[in-house]
Amino acid sequence: MKVTSEHNERMAKLTFASVYPHYLTKVEKKGRTKEELHRVIEWLTDYDDKKIEALIKEKVTFEEFFRDAKLHPNAHLIKGVICGYRIEDIDNALTQQVRYLDKLVDELAKGRKMEKILREA
């Protein structure tokens, strides 16, 4: 599936605060915790709990969220299909970063081991 410029624009304007509750619900429904979700977000972005809460409160867009993030050097190892898109084939950096986060949350919800999710093993 090809990512369109309209799709990229929609991703940029989407607020992290509007998506975060869905991430949390998804992982908690599968027996994972908020702490684990935050660990995954921190691994990808270098944002700690306090910063994540502040970004939610500020209602930052994904564009702002990832502009200030310090992406993990192993983020490029996140591969596969999420929402019908092959992550490694997405040519828009921001859309790819949002899909990295989606994929990590998906892996957490599916019960994958944390060291695999965090690309440590």
Describe this protein with a few key phrases.
mainly alpha; Helicase, Ruva Protein, domain 3; 121 residues; UCP033199; 60% helix; globular; SP1917_dom_sf; DUF2200 domain-containing protein
Q: Which runs of at least 5 residues are low in confidence (pLDDT < 50)?
A: none
Instruction: Tell me roughly what share of residues is in helical segments.
Output: 55-70%
Euclidean distance between termini CA atoms: 30 Å
Q: Gyration radius, to the nearest Å?
A: 13 Å
Number of helical regions: 7
When the domains are counted, the total is 1
The tally of beta strands, per DSSP, is 2
What is the string of helix and strand elements? HHHHHEEHH
Mean pLDDT: 94
CATH top level? Answer: Mainly Alpha
The CATH topology comes to Helicase, Ruva Protein, domain 3
Structural class: mainly alpha
Question: CATH superfamily, called what?
Answer: uncharacterized protein sp1917 domain
Strand neighbour order, sheet with most strands: 1-2
CATH architecture: Orthogonal Bundle
Q: Largest sheet at a glance?
A: 2 strands, antiparallel
* SS strand fraction: under 5%
Indicate the overall shape.
Answer: globular
Pfam families: DUF2200
Protein name: DUF2200 domain-containing protein
Organism: Constantimarinum furrinae
InterPro entries: SP1917_dom_sf, UCP033199
Please specify the SSE layout and strand pairing.
Blueprint: H1 5-13, H2 16-29, H3 34-45, H4 49-58, H5 62-67, E1 81-82, E2 85-86, H6 93-109, H7 114-117
Helix pairs in contact: 2-4, 2-6, 3-6
